[in-house]
Amino acid sequence: MWLEVVLFVVLVVLLRYWFLRPKGMPPGPLVIPYLGSTPIFSVNQVRPLRKKYGDIFRTELGSHKIMFLCNYRLIMEAFSKQEMADRPFMPMCNRMTDGVVAGVIMTNGERWQNARNFLLRNLKDLGMGKTYLEDAILQEANMLVEDLKTYTGAPTPFPKSINIAVLNVVWQMVASKRYDLADEEVMSLMKLMKDFENMPALVMLCENIPWLKMFIPKFLRGSLLHEDMLNNLNNESIRLTREMVAEHRAELDPDNPRDVVDQYLVAMDSKDDIAKFFSEKDLMRNMMDLFFAAFDSTSSMLRWIILYMAKYPEVQRRVQQQIDDVVSRDTLPSTQHKSRLPVVEAMIHEVLRQSSIIPLGFTHATNSDLHLEGYFIPKGSWVFGCTVCCNEDPQYWMEPDQFNIDRFLDAEGNFSAQKEGFLPFGLGRRSCLGEALARMELYVFTAAILQNFSFSAPEGCEIDLEHDNKNPCFLRSKEQNILISLRI
After folding, report:
1. What is d(CA 469, CA 44) in angstroms, rounded to the nearest whole number?
2. How far apart are CA 304 and CA 294, in angstroms?
3. Which of 342, 361, 377 is nearest to 474 (CA)?
4. What would the mean pLDDT of 467-474 be, rounded to a whole number?
5. Quick one: which of 376, 391, 443 has its CA closest to 415?
6. Cβ distance 448 to 319 under 8 Å?
7. What is the mean pLDDT of the chain?
8. What percent of the chain has a predicted confidence (pLDDT) above 70?
């Protein structure tokens, strides 16, 4: 009797699932009702599925429909649509604000537009994308050069000062604060952020299919779900931002705001229309969004550039020769030299293409139903634009596996950025907030470092350009020793 009841209930649940399931979605692997299909976390999983199902396919994770776009034209078309302008709701991202959606990276609609417009306007007023910001970048580049001199002559891991130097450029605009390149406090917070990125797949599964936690004993949840690390990150983020907001509040001069935090407090106090969603919690979340964005991707790119130069010494010598021909050794390269340093620009772009540090792109979400390539994409779907599929597509790149900076140089040796097939940064309505600044930082830091140092593998070792598999959604370089040699 009970067996028949259970089977009947299961049958009803399954029939309800299939009848309510959206029709006409893209193809994809087998879906188990209420569980989904095989979780996709890395580009190595995407490649065979693209080969099997085509440039648009679907997987599922619990109740979430996840779409993967693997073609340049398709990605450009999709992310230009208003329907693709949202981010998915992820509870883990809202721990700092007690479950309230806040900040600029993961918000949507009017809240996101207000935050983005406010930050863009004030960052631009404070110098983002303008040549006079270059003085701050050159100052940090000079400090980094001096710090790297202390690591020369013996194999060394990548100095943490690279992260802090990159962060300082933005953090001075955000909070009028620069850190010493050996600051232990900020290094500790950065490590917690890296640990957060490298969380095991089980944590992500339980975040997106919450009822799975029921099958994990309570005494194991802390270790398996990394609750201690998440709590430490949350507490440290709150402490750092709360202290800075309190300092700014105590010293605030509404007539002479110094930075983004001051501007935010002035707007919040004056009840401007743009401050409709403003609060101190929202300010703290915005600060952490900018903190994370400020150091992570740019510093990761600098590490990749150093590794590629160590792996390809002939390219390194070619870049350094052009820098030496254009810039005197007692002057750091700046944007005024940029047009005469096309090889530097070409090398940076080729490393961007090869490394594809965010291979699946930042997650988008649909805010309404739409059709794409004849397929139905339901509201609330998560959408990944797989940048790595574009950057390695033979349709756009001859011998895409080869490291070749000449693909970004024309016949006369001038820099020629190939547009089609190249997706180094975000795009569409959710494009990178600080793209112009990131480009300037990459150029200035790269040119300054290569003007003063050469990089190579330690004796008896090989440079490893394989990606670190700890976090396949963010392709970091592997931890390894390098040899830094001062150029005389």
Report:
1. 10
2. 17
3. 361
4. 75
5. 443
6. no
7. 86
8. 88
CB atoms within 10 A of CB 445: 27
Q: For residue 62, what are its two tokens?
A: 């619990």
What are the φ/ψ torsions at residue 372 (nearest 5 degrees)?
Answer: -140, 125
Q: 258: number of CA atoms within 13 Å, CB side?
A: 12
- What's the whole-model pTM score? 0.91
Q: Which residues of 105-118 are buried (b: 16+ CB within 10 A; e: fewer)?
A: bbbbeebbbbbbeb
CA atoms within 13 A on the CB side of 307: 25
d(CA 165, CA 325): 27
Specify the amino acid at residue 339: S
Distance (Å, whole) CA 142 – CA 138: 6
Q: Which of the four pLDDT bands, split at 50, 70 and 90, describes residue 331?
A: very high
What are 385's strand-pairing partners? Answer: 69
In whole angstroms, what is the distance from residue 274 CA to residue 267 CA? Answer: 8
Q: Distance between CA 239 and CA 487 in Å, rounded?
A: 42
- Residues 94 and 103: their CA atoms lie apart, in Å, by 9
At 159-185, the pLDDT tens digits run 999 999 999 998 988 999 999 998 888
Dist CA 402 CA 426 (whole Å): 24
Tokens of 390: 């574009």
Alpha-helical runs (H) found in 101-253: 109-125, 134-148, 161-175, 184-197, 201-208, 218-224, 227-251
Residue ranges with strand state E in 107-254: none
Rounded to whole angstroms, the Cα distance separating 382 from 58 reads 10
Rounded to whole angstroms, the Cα distance separating 216 from 206 reads 10
Instruction: Tell me the three state secondary structure of residue 455.
Output: strand
Average pLDDT for 289-307? 87
Report residue 27 CA to chain centroid gap.
28
The Cα–Cα gap between 158 and 177 comes to 24
User: Are 380 and 368 within 8 A, CB to CB?
Assistant: no
Pick 142 or 99 by higher pLDDT.
142
Tell me the average pLDDT across 91-95.
78
**Percentage of the chain modeled with pLDDT above 90:** 46
